[in-house]
Automatic annotation (TrEMBL), chain B:
Xref: InterPro entries: ABC3_permease_C, MacB_PCD, Membrane_comp_ABC_pdt
Record keyword Cell division present: no
Residues in MacB-like periplasmic core domain copies: 441-627
Location (main, coarse): membrane
Keywords on record: Cell membrane, Membrane, Transmembrane, Transmembrane helix
PANTHER family in UniProt: BLL1001 PROTEIN (PTHR30287:SF2), MEMBRANE COMPONENT OF PREDICTED ABC SUPERFAMILY METABOLITE UPTAKE TRANSPORTER (PTHR30287)
Membrane disposition: Multi-pass membrane protein
Protein name in UniProt: ABC transport system permease protein
Transmembrane regions: 219-242, 262-289, 317-342, 363-383, 389-415, 436-456, 657-685, 711-744, 756-775
Localization per record: Cell membrane
Domain ABC3 transporter permease C-terminal: 221-345, 663-782
Keyword Membrane attached: yes
Length: 218, 793
């Protein structure tokens, strides 16, 4: 199993004491599988994704990614996990504004030590970014920026792709187009995909779906 | 990974060249101003050390005439015969050069030049040799001796064999005898061989160096202030740059860059900037020092008689310390920002709003720090003593006031917002208040620079007024004449006494009062003194009692150093102790001064015949008396009129403060630059705040005018705060630092027109600084303003 979550608990500090967000989540995801995580706002979807990516730590429970216990890793270990095993696609794109589109696409593969210029170029072409490689992110439309973020993630060949509402900032037509490209490319690389989404329609395009409600898998 | 991350970090500056320029320029200016001052200090100290090495000043005990006169050859021979290991020294002016004669055969080790060509037989034999720096050798008149280049000889000094020096100076007696550290046991006491001579023990450290310490301390304090203003600029630029990079830092971490590596790379980036800016700064410092050094050299010569080389040497310790201070300054300016980056949680919401909230939290701490520093300054003002306490008071007061400035401005703007009518003005005041955190560092720099300007110009102005009045009092005689010998002195007095209103003999001898080096001066009873001199404190009828030999007058610095008050006895000899009748100002004199009546002076120093005279006469008679004196064989150079002496004294004064004035202007210019850079940097961030107001119906031109008005208003409020701070600074300089450094206190004079002019200048500078961003805003295409809404998420 590529991803295994057991009894994950997480709460955040509130004005009147800790506010529980996740209350004992169990989840498994095999290599090459795609899973949509749906739920209302505040149900803990993004928090769960952050915990899997090592961006945050659970209060309790165990997370394993590709046989590594994430919950036991220190900050450097979690950074190494994000570099080498996990790729994250954010709703806000999170491109580096001072780097060109070409440099942005190559960036994560470079820091992971897996940069293949041919692959980066091929991804840019597949995602329609080839004419824009010398531009800066602010010169692209929202859809193009998200395609750039997807190319950046996939160029590093991660075993697990985490996507946090990747089409949340895009109009319906663009969202369809971007999601289609992402699913196609992820399938080609054989990576597993865990995607958080509000859209039932998008969730229906994934292999499996789970619904989070009040911090638990419903 | 490292290369890719470093590239990503550096790419920020390619997209923000103005920020990079601000950072490098701020740091280079700070380093330049600081290292320029340090170069001047280092050059001056090297000159003092060279003087000490050349003449053994301070290193060896000296035997001198007790009366301050000369040592005869006979006394020297008698001492050598009695077993004393002493070596003669003579010095005098030859052309514009100080010529020093030594005896290389008897001089203690380490005295004299270390030129490679030094050859003892050539030095002593034939036409002899004269050692000196190139400019000194060039300035010497024709002597017949061989000039030898020796860069280690003190500036302005030429060194030669004593016999040649005596011949060239037309002298037959020597000034002093240097005493070798090792002396034979059992030699007779000095008093037995030469009772008229006294042994002065060696004094560690160069005497000139000690005298000029407070001058250099003042320069250093100014350099530090300039540096602080520069660091304010860097702090603002780095803080803003790091703030803008927060989202990128989060992204980099989210993509798997370890925090430790990221912080290390950012440190490396800052170090690289610091070194680049440091090299530029050291170059600027070099240029600044080279420009100011001639003035400083003239000042030190005028004030302390210290010769300082006019040229600048590139000393490794100096430029290394310049680079060091650039790195240290970067660390100081960037430390807090880097710490915030290093400790920020990976997932916390970023953005400028978070920054503004963090700034608000910091404001409370800043207020507490300001209050603590101002209380410390108040405590030091009341209880502190000495120069270090004076400078601590300056530092605490200035930093405390600077920290309090944003809080005071915030309160003033809050009050204005409450009183505002109409939505536009309410928005204007609220928006101005929101801008305060981003501009506060530049405003603090402006406030410090203005306060320094007010403080220093008030100090210099007060000093000038006091000094001019002091010269009028002291230089009452219409003519001054200096005779060559005792016989000529008596002849001049006999000639003039029946022809003019008064002949006032002038003589001075160095003595010690309570262990303090002091000049003993004489005053002939004459209405000139009571009519012109203003005593700072006096008993009843001081001049009458002085004339009657019932007491003495002492200078303010002697009174302070020796703790003397009116009526306290002053010991002038084994059996002579007289009360203090009055205390007079004696500005610019590093020595203390005691004035006694002529009769008492003759009694205390019977061997001294006054050779200088102040002549009181009708100004119309000046040409006639001058002719009579030259007719007696006195050279023109021996007769000086009052106006020439005053002119020379004021020239020395003006040159003394030329350096201060130059640094003052530079500090203000740096503060103006800080304002411009802050406004330009902030202008790029202003669109999201201005676009909604534009969309609601305000024209770009009107918005630009409001932006300019905001800058001018903030500068005006800053000037209002700077005025009392500057006046307080002036008070500290005049009443605390001056007293501790020089021993005299100056009355403070206010110069309202100067302050008004400075205020206008600050407003103009702020207006000009805001003009460029305002023009850019007025010309911002509507598409850019609409882009704000398109990019809002």
């Amino acid at each position: 199993m590529l991803l295994r979550l057991r009894d994950i608990h997480k709460s955040f500090a509130g004005a009147e004491g800790p506010v529980p967000v996740l209350r004992g989540v169990d989840l498994d995801l095999a290599a090459g599988e795609s899973l949509a995580l749906t739920g209302e706002s505040g149900s803990g979807k993004s928090t769960l994704l952050h915990l899997v990516g090592g961006l945050d730590r659970p209060d309790r429970g165990r997370i394993e990614v590709a046989g590594t216990e994430v919950t036991a890793l220190d900050d450097s270990g979690r950074a190494a996990l994000r570099r080498g095993t996990v790729g994250v696609v954010f709703q806000q794109f999170n491109l580096i504004p001072s780097l060109t589109v070409g440099d942005n696409i190559a960036f994560q593969a470079r820091i992971a030590g897996r940069h293949e210029p041919v692959r980066a170029t091929a991804l840019a072409e597949r995602l329609g970014l080839a004419p824009h490689l010398a531009k800066y992110p602010e010169q692209l439309s929202g859809g193009q920026q998200q395609r750039c973020a997807i190319a950046r993630t996939l160029a590093a060949r991660p075993a697990l792709v985490l996507a946090d509402e990747p089409t949340g900032n895009l109009d319906e037509a663009t969202a369809e187009e971007v999601l289609g490209a992402m699913l196609e490319l992820v399938a080609e690389t054989g990576a597993a995909l865990l995607m958080v989404t509000h859209s039932q329609h998008h969730a229906a395009r994934m292999g499996r779906r789970l619904h989070l409600h009040a911090g638990r898998i419903a | 990974m490292t290369g890719a991350v470093f590239h990503a970090l550096l790419s920020h500056w390619r997209r923000a060249p103005l920020q990079l320029f601000t950072l490098i320029a701020g740091l280079a200016l700070a380093t330049g101003l600081w290292s320029g001052v340090q170069a001047i200090n280092a050059e001056a100290r090297a000159s003092y050390d060279a003087a000490a090495a050349t003449l053994g000043e301070g290193r060896f005990a000296r035997i001198e005439a007790a009366t301050g006169g000369e040592v005869t050859q006979a006394q020297y021979v008698a001492l050598r015969r009695a077993g004393w290991l002493v070596s003669p020294v003579v010095q005098g002016r030859l052309g514009g050069v100080r010529l020093v004669g030594i005896d290389p055969l008897t001089a203690p080790g380490g005295i004299g030049p270390a030129a490679e060509e030094a050859d003892i037989s050539a030095f002593l034999g034939g036409a002899g040799q004269i050692f000196g720096r190139a400019e000194v050798l060039a300035a010497l008149p024709e002597t017949g001796a061989e000039p030898v280049l020796a860069p280690d000889v003190a500036p302005g000094t030429a060194l030669t064999d004593i016999s040649l020096a005596l011949r060239l100076l037309k002298r037959d007696s020597i000034d002093a005898l240097l005493v070798a550290p090792e002396q034979p046991i059992g030699r007779p006491e000095l008093a037995e061989i030469a009772p008229d001579l006294v042994l002065r023990p060696p004094q560690p450290g160069s005497e000139v160096g000690r005298l000029t310490d407070s001058f250099h301390l003042n320069l250093t304090a100014f350099g530090l202030l300039c540096f602080a203003v520069g660091i304010f600029i860097v702090h603002g630029a780095v803080g803003l740059a790091f703030e803008q990079r927060r989202p990128v830092i989060r992204t980099l971490r989210a993509l798997g860059v370890p925090l430790r590596r990221l912080v290390a790379l950012m440190l490396l980036e800052l170090l690289a900037f610091a070194l680049v800016a440091g090299v530029i700064g050291v170059g600027l410092g070099w240029l600044l020092a080279a420009r100011l050094l001639p003035d400083v050299a003239a000042t030190l010569r005028g004030l302390y008689g210290a010769d300082v080389a006019g040229g600048l040497a590139l000393r490794p310790a100096w430029w290394l310390s310049g680079l060091g201070i650039a790195v240290l300054g970067t660390g100081l300016a960037a430390g807090a920002a880097l710490w915030r980056i290093a400790t920020m949680p990976l997932l916390a919401a970023g953005g400028r709003r978070a920054w503004a909230m963090a700034e608000a939290r910091m404001a409370r701490g800043q207020g507490a720090a300001a209050l603590a520093l101002l209380l410390l300054a108040a405590g030091l003002a009341v209880w502190g003593e000495g120069l270090v306490a004076g400078f601590a008071l300056l530092g605490a007061g200035l930093i405390g006031a600077a920290l309090a400035l944003p809080l005071l401005l915030g309160a003033a703007l809050g009050l204005a917002a409450r009183l505002a009518h109409g939505p536009l003005m309410q928005w204007f005041w609220a928006d101005t208040r929101q801008q305060l955190p981003g501009l506060s560092l530049a405003l603090m720099a402006l406030m410090l620079a203005m306060a320094a300007n007010i403080g220093v110009s008030t100090m210099v102005g007060s000093f000038r007024a006091t000094f001019a009045e002091f010269l009028d009092q002291r230089l009452a005689p219409e003519l001054y004449v200096e005779t060559a010998d005792d016989a000529q002195a008596r002849a001049v007095e006999a000639l003039l006494a029946p022809r003019i209103r008064a002949v006032l003999p002038l003589a001075s001898v160095e003595i010690e009062v309570e262990g303090i080096p002091t000049e003993l001066n004489l005053a002939r009873p004459d209405p000139t003194y009571p009519e012109n001199w203003r005593l700072l404190r006096a008993t009843e009828r001081p001049w009458e009692r002085l004339a009657a030999g019932e007491g003495v007058l002492v200078s303010e610095q002697l009174a302070r150093r020796a703790g003397l008050s009116l009526g306290d006895p002053v010991r002038l000899g084994p059996e002579t102790a007289l009360p203090v009748l009055g205390i007079h100002g004696d500005y610019g004199n590093p020595l203390g001064q005691v004035i006694v009546t002529e009769a008492l002076f003759a009694q205390l120093q019977p061997e001294i015949v006054p050779r200088r005279f102040g002549l009181r006469l009708d100004p119309a008679e000046v040409p006639e008396i001058r002719a009579a004196l030259t007719g007696m064989g006195l050279p023109e150079g021996a007769i000086t009129d009052q106006a020439a002496v005053k002119r020379f004294s004021m020239q020395v004064f003006e040159r003394t403060f030329a350096v201060t004035a130059a640094l003052n202007v530079l500090t203000l210019a740096v503060a103006g630059f800080a304002m411009l850079m802050s406004l330009l940097t902030l202008a790029a961030l202003r669109l999201p705040q201005l676009a909604p107001v534009w969309a609601l119906g305000l024209t770009r031109r009107r918005l630009a005018a409001l932006e300019m008005g905001r800058a001018v208003l903030l500068a005006a409020l800053t000037a209002v705060v700077a005025l009392p701070v500057g006046l307080a600074l002036a008070w500290v300089l005049l009443a605390v630092v001056n007293v501790a450094a020089f021993g005299w206190r100056l009355p403070m004079t206010a110069f309202p027109w100067d302050y008004a002019r400075l205020g206008l200048f600050a407003l103009l500078a702020a207006g000009l600084a805001a003009l460029w961003p305002a023009i850019r805003l007025a010309r911002t295409p509507p598409a850019a303003l609409l882009g704000v809404f398109a990019h809002e998420r």
